[in-house]
């Protein structure tokens, strides 16, 4: 064979190999879900999915029903859209459906972090110890202290009455909750500040503001970074920010702080004991910050906005907050002591609990992904069985399948603050096709990957709203302003953000 023929054969073989790997020759086999490969090899439907995941999945569901397989950027994803069948995925053994594989790829791409074999175990045990039970009492108090520093530091400093302040509500909520949570988790600036002079609240305020500003830059780039769709310039900016955070939150820097939370300290220590190098633990610190602080601020914004847009909801939550404060024997008065809201007090707020759950139904849109480790059968709740191939992925998107299903939640786009309010101590139940739905909302994910910070997150939001309603009068600058639409590129990444901010005013109540 002439040389050119050999080269041609090699090129053809490489092209066929590439197309094979890109899924171009994949055919739907018997018992497999409908297959959608799209027109572009490897990419498949990735572009449509990234630009508006909800719209794309809705169209696919209309065409194929409750289960279908789609090629997205080199992977075949089987989407399960029937909430009554979610148990089959959530409860499946890790040997068959694994959360870690996808998560590890993502955290390496986005945070440069390579987990060790024990990382997840270490996170689980630290979270059980510090973000639940007695640990949660300590963390809630630390958050309360953080909020006092960030929100209430200027109380009583205004001369001449109670002037209105104006701000973007999203900016205000995200900034406040992020900074208070950051101080609660990563500790305070050393009380002996620069040049040996006493540091303190001022240093915490300045430093946490700087961290927030940089964090927001990264946060805005995050969805496109995760889906590898950043322009060259933005990619470099993301790289710069990543390195900045590795430094800011380096183990060395964090060790200088006072009052670091047990959750952060213990995980870092155990990873060190396990032999993870220091530079990798620096990266872990950044990953934790993002996981812990990227969602609660935006969720607090939606909660406060919905309350401000719904006077009856606001009135009922305010009444509840006032009652809980009164029963704790505390009161807000000019020049009086700053109130202290405890975890105990937060256990007696059913109306606020329902408003938080409703907020997360409307605003939390995570995509839960599992890697298929062996060929398996997926059994739907109606008895149908589908074959799923090893190497594929399974996706569940509860926002569309459960949160926005009008049969489970009538008028799904409407904020009904009492939707989840238990009646006379009886837990609310939700139904579809006459069957009880177990997974009627899933803001925290489910199964092995369920958010370990969920109890703390809820307390963060509740503390924030508790203090806002107790201390401040609140007004939207334009009472008729619409609730802004969701920023579509963030579907799949936790709590959604608004496409624009909403101006509001606040001033002390007393
Ligand atoms: C409204 C606030 C929050 C929401 C909606 C939320 C939601 C979620 C979701 C959906 C997941 C992943 C589930 C999956 O991929 O299957 C997750 C993971 C995680 N969350 Fe949260 N989260 C919130 C706040 C927090 C807070 C405050 C902390 C910590 C203090 C935290 C720590 C984590 C960690 C460490 C993971 C990774 C768990 C793992 O790898 O197994 N989250 N969260």
TrEMBL record:
<keyword id="KW-0472">Membrane</keyword>
<keyword id="KW-0349">Heme</keyword>
<comment type="similarity">
    <text>Belongs to the cytochrome P450 family.</text>
</comment>
<dbReference type="InterPro" id="IPR036396">
    <property type="entry name" value="Cyt_P450_sf"/>
</dbReference>
<dbReference type="InterPro" id="IPR001128">
    <property type="entry name" value="Cyt_P450"/>
</dbReference>
<keyword id="KW-0479">Metal-binding</keyword>
<protein>
    <submittedName>
        <fullName>5-beta-cholestane-3-alpha,7-alpha-diol 12-alpha-hydroxylase-like</fullName>
    </submittedName>
</protein>
<keyword id="KW-0443">Lipid metabolism</keyword>
<dbReference type="InterPro" id="IPR002403">
    <property type="entry name" value="Cyt_P450_E_grp-IV"/>
</dbReference>
<keyword id="KW-0408">Iron</keyword>
<dbReference type="InterPro" id="IPR024204">
    <property type="entry name" value="Cyt_P450_CYP7A1-type"/>
</dbReference>
<keyword id="KW-0812">Transmembrane</keyword>
<keyword id="KW-0444">Lipid biosynthesis</keyword>
<dbReference type="Pfam" id="PF00067">
    <property type="entry name" value="p450"/>
</dbReference>
<keyword id="KW-0256">Endoplasmic reticulum</keyword>
<keyword id="KW-1133">Transmembrane helix</keyword>
């Amino acid at each position: 064979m002439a040389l050119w023929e050999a080269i041609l054969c090699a090129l053809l073989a490489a092209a066929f190999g590439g197309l094979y790997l890109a899924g171009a020759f994949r055919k739907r086999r018997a018992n497999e879900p409908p297959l959608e490969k799209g027109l572009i090899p490897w990419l498949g439907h990735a572009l449509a999915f990234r630009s508006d995941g909800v719209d794309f999945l809705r169209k696919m569901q209309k065409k194929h029903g409750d289960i279908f397989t789609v090629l997205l950027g080199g992977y075949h994803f089987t989407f399960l859209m029937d909430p009554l069948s979610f148990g089959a995925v959530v409860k499946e053994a890790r040997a068959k459906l694994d959360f870690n594989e996808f998560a590890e790829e993502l955290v390496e791409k986005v945070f440069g972090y390579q987990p060790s074999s024990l990382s997840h175990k270490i996170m689980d045990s630290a979270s059980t110890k510090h973000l639940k039970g007695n640990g949660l009492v300590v963390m809630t108090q630390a958050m309360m202290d953080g909020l006092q520093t960030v929100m209430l530091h200027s109380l009583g400093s205004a001369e001449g009455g109670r002037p209105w302040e104006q701000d973007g509500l999203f900016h205000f909520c995200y900034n406040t909750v992020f900074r208070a949570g950051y101080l609660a988790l990563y500790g305070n600036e050393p009380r002996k500040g620069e040049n040996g002079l006493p540091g303190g609240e001022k240093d915490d305020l300045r430093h946490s503001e700087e961290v927030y500003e940089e964090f927001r830059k990264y946060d805005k780039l995050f969805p496109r970074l995760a889906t590898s769709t950043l322009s060259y310039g933005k990619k470099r900016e993301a790289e710069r920010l990543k390195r900045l955070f590795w430094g800011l939150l380096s183990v060395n820097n964090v060790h200088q702080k006072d009052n670091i939370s047990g959750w952060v300290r213990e995980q870092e220590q155990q990873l060190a004991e396990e032999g993870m190098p220091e530079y990798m633990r620096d990266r872990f610190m950044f990953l934790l910050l993002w996981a812990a602080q990227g969602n609660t601020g935006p969720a607090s914004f939606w909660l406060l906005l919905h309350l401000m847009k719904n006077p009856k909801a606001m009135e009922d939550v305010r009444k509840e907050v006032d009652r809980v404060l009164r029963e704790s024997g505390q009161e807000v008065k000019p020049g009086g002591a700053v109130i202290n809201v405890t975890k105990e007090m937060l256990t007696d707020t059913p109306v606020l609990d329902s408003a938080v759950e409703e907020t997360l139904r409307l605003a939390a849109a995570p995509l839960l992904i599992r890697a298929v480790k062996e060929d398996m059968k997926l059994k739907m709740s109606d008895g149908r069985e589908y074959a799923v191939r090893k190497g594929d992925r399974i996706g569940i998107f509860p926002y569309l399948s459960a949160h926005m299903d009008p049969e489970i939640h009538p008028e799904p786009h409407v904020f009904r603050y009492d939707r989840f309010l238990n009646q006379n101590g009886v837990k609310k139940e939700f139904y579809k096709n006459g069957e009880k739905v177990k997974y009627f909302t899933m803001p925290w994910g489910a199964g092995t990957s369920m958010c370990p910070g969920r109890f703390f997150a809820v307390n963060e939001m509740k503390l924030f709203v508790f203090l806002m309603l107790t201390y401040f009068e609140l007004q939207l600058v334009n009472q008729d302003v619409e609730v802004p639409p969701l920023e579509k590129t963030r579907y799949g990444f936790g709590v959604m953000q608004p496409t624009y901010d909403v101006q509001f005013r606040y001033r002390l109540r007393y």
